[in-house]
Structure formats: structure tokens, C-alpha cells
Amino acid sequence: METHLNSSWQTILTTEIQKPYFKDLMLAVANEYAVNSCFPPKELLFSAFDYCSFDDLKVVIIGQDPYHGEGEANGLCFSVSENMKIPPSLRNIFRELNSDLDSLFLPTSGNLERWAKQGILLLNATLSVQKDKPNSHKHLNWGKFTDAVIQEISDNKSNVVFLLWGNFAHKKGLKIDRTKHLVLESGHPSPMSANQGKWFGNKHFSKTNDYLKSKGIEVIIW
């Protein structure tokens, strides 16, 4: 399994991807793809990094693992491939976005490449999954790699906005340096959490842009 990382991430993560655990991880992932139907397609495993270079990074959104249905996952957390039905969590993200920014229209595409290209790292904690089996690759040590990615961003960037949605993401972000980054936390946008009043009204999209503007950074066109 080749590690397709764009050059800016390759430089930042050189030490990490040369560690024995990462080489073992790539072998384990390659084996999973060889014997099972897995998502996203192999060539899209590192899409989050391809669309958003380290240099251009403004925002990090942390998800858990890819969608496990046929044709859905495209390597970006919460995002689905073009022409796929918008999943419930993403529909709630769009509803909050719509309300927060007083927008007239809900997005009709669940493909979030448009966000990634503006400097949003849409990072799943686990980058692969077996078909129809959520969290099936959690044991593969992806978490160690994505923890290292978050640490590198925290240590080597300033003024990044981290959006942590749900308890899993909160734990994943515990070591972020909050003296130099903005960390926004809320419940998860899944229907169960959102309907308990833990998601809607968090205003994370306007808060993100207000912060970026205050730092002289170009805002996100959500």
C-alpha cells in the first residue's frame, strides 16, 4: 500500500511514516483491501491531505471513520461522493450551517471537496472501513497516525480552528494547544445527538469565520 501524501504533508510527516508501526499499518490495510470490500477506494485513502495542504490549512474537522455503504466514502470525513444521497449527520450539518449563516439554500451535494480546497482538513480518525461494518478498521492503528497528525498541526501551526463534534472527537483533541488555536466543541450532528439539543445552535461556522477574520486569514465560503 503506497502512501499518497502531497509534498507539504510528506515533509511534515516524514518521521511518522517511516516508523515501524506505520509500515505495519500500511501492510495491514493492503491486506484488508485484498481480502475484503473496503472503503474509500484505495486511491482516495489520503484525500483529506491531497485537497488541503499543510501550508494552506485553516480548519480541522475530526470524524470517526468513513461511511461503510457502497460508493459513499471519498476520503473526507462527513463527505460523500457526488450524486450520493446526503447522510443524516451531514444533513444536520447543513441545517445548522443554513441557520447559522442565515442562508437561503441548503447544499444539494454532500461532496465536501469544496471545503477541503479552502484549507479544511476533513480528517477521519480511522481512514478505512470494511463494507457494511462501521468501525471495523479501528484496530488497525490508524488512530496512532491521526493522533500524530493532530499533534503536528497543534505544534507547528498557529491560529487553526479545530471543530470537535461529539465525545469521540473531544477525546481526540485533548492535546491540542488551546493557547494558539481555537477549539470549538459541541455534540455530534447525528440525529440522536442533534435531537437531544447537543448540536443545533452551536454556530461553529460563523464562529470559525469570525476567528479567521480576526487573525487576518481569509474566511471559508461554506
Secondary-structure topology with pairs:
Blueprint: H1 7-12, H2 14-17, H3 20-35, E1 38-39, H4 47-51, E2 59-63, H5 88-100, H6 113-116, E3 120-124, E4 129-130, H7 142-156, E5 161-165, H8 167-172, E6 182-186, H9 191-194, H10 204-214
Parallel strand pairs: 2-3, 2-5, 5-6
Antiparallel strand pairs: 1-4
Can you walk me through this structure?
This protein is of the alpha/beta class. The chain has 10 helices and 6 strands. It has helices at residues 7-12, 14-17, 20-35, 47-51, 88-100, 113-116, 142-156, 167-172, 191-194, 204-214, and strands spanning 38-39, 59-63, 120-124, 129-130, 161-165, 182-186. It has a 4-stranded parallel beta sheet. Strands 1-4 form a two-stranded antiparallel ribbon. α8 links the parallel β5 and β6. The termini are far apart.
Number of strands: 6
Per the principal axes of the C-alpha atoms, what is the gross shape?
Answer: globular
Largest pleated sheet: 4 strands, parallel
Low-confidence regions: none
Q: Which percent range describes the beta-strand content?
A: 5-15%
Alpha carbon gap, first and last residue: 34 Å
Strand order of the largest sheet: 3-2-5-6
Give me the secondary-structure category.
alpha/beta
Number of helices: 10
